[in-house]
Design a protein that fits this description.
single chain; 339 residues; alpha/beta; six-stranded parallel β-sheet; 16 strands; globular; binds NADPH dihydro-nicotinamide-adenine-dinucleotide phosphate
């Protein structure tokens, strides 16, 4: 059995789908109520691999909302993640992905120091951030989509927003080591971490977002922003490929603008239908087959019987691990989303 710990993208989103999650009484409630709501298993399903192997999974809704961070409800946010992890462990799940902000909260608030949740000792080896597969999928989306738009990576400038993050730094390593990109623009807020990354890569230039966007042929968005930013489309190059891997999305609006192609980053499509409801609730275009790459990582670890925290900590994702999970991803029938 594998598990997925997820959350919704905003209070508005949570209220609009509360009935679909099976708790209609939450629909009229405000942030305070969601802060005290317990985690729940809201979906139980089977996944069949391209190899024919079948596994079972459960989705645990943590009831965390990004507004908890924006409103400094830190205790509530951390409790959501720890309680959801304890819930997954009590369900007897072998390996559970910490989706979206779950792993960010775990790391930023050093939750590894809090092993005990009520009468349970958390076993961190039963959890994965899913970030190795996410980084791999985003890199493939860049490599596979750029040529079709007339962008030759060896001539291209690629900006990574959130470059020093767990996913962002892995994407930078891959772009530097595997693709021969001409120029790499490293964007985040903390200058020291940016300089350390640049020193590690021996490549790339540190820039602000405003400096980077007009120069970029490709923009990878992997910043941990609780709310998307507005982008002035008129300042962008044409063509420009945007791969938005944020959850919630890093870019504020969906738009159609000449020469700008936006891909949903870090999303995979499975070759067979999955009998679940949860991807309807998070608004996937093809909810029976499309899912977050981090969730797919826990499926892959279950298929491969690798019951270990494959992705853990921060900035430890190697190209070798990305190769390994990428190979498993193809073997079990997952493809990076390209439309
Ligand atoms: P991390 O916390 O490891 O890294 C976040 C990065 O974003 C850091 O570089 C941080 O640097 C930067 N950042 C944060 N705020 C800003 C800002 N306002 N402007 C510029 N940079 C900013 O996060 P992860 O790598 O784990 O996750 C990144 C994103 O990917 C999140 O949105 C997450 O929800 C999403 N995600 C998607 C998955 C999928 O399957 N599609 C799976 C897992 C995560 P600094 O603080 O210095 O600015």
């Amino acid at each position: 059995m594998f598990g997925l710990i997820g959350h919704l993208t905003s209070l508005e989103h949570a209220k609009s789908v509360a009935h679909k999650l099976g708790y209609p009484e939450y629909a009229e409630q405000g942030l305070d109520f969601w802060c005290s709501a317990p985690p729940q298993v809201v979906d139980h399903f089977k996944v069949v691999s391209a190899t024919g192997q079948t596994i079972e999974g459960k989705y645990v809704e943590s009831c965390f909302l990004p507004e908890m961070l924006a409103n400094r409800r830190i205790k509530a946010a951390t409790r959501k993640i720890l309680n959801a992890m304890a819930h997954a462990q009590k369900e007897g799940i072998n390996i559970t992905a910490l989706g979206g902000f779950s792993s960010i909260i775990f790391e930023n608030f050093k939750l590894e120091q809090i092993k005990r949740v009520r009468n349970l000792d958390l076993d961190f080896s039963k959890f994965t951030t899913g970030n190795t597969h996410t980084a791999y999928v985003i890199c493939k989306q860049v490599e596979d989509a750029a040529p079709g738009l007339g962008i030759d990576l060896t001539e291209a400038t690629v900006a990574v927003c959130g470059a020093t993050g767990d996913i962002g730094s892995a994407v930078c390593r891959w772009l530097t080591g595997r693709t021969g990109v001409k120029d790499l623009l490293l964007v985040a807020r903390n200058q020291e971490r940016l300089e350390n990354l640049q020193a590690e890569l021996k490549f790339g230039r540190v820039q602000t977002l405003d400096e980077a966007l007009p120069q970029a042929d490709v923009v990878v968005w992997v910043a941990s922003m609780p709310k998307g930013v507005e982008v002035n489309l008129e300042t962008l190059k044409q063509p420009c490929l945007m791969v938005d891997g944020g959850y919630p999305k890093n870019m504020d609006a969906t738009f159609s603008y000449p020469g700008i192609t936006v891909l949903k980053g870090g999303i995979v499509e499975h070759m067979l239908d999955i009998d679940w409801h949860i991807m309807n609730i998070v608004n996937m275009d093809v909810p029976g087959r499309q899912l977050f790459a981090c969730f797919a990582e826990s499926m892959l670890l279950e298929f491969e019987k690798l019951h270990t925290n494959f992705s853990w900590g921060r900035n430890q994702i190697t190209l070798e691990k990305m190769d390994l999970i990428g190979e498993a991803s193809r073997r079990h029938g997952f493809k990076p989303l390209l439309t």
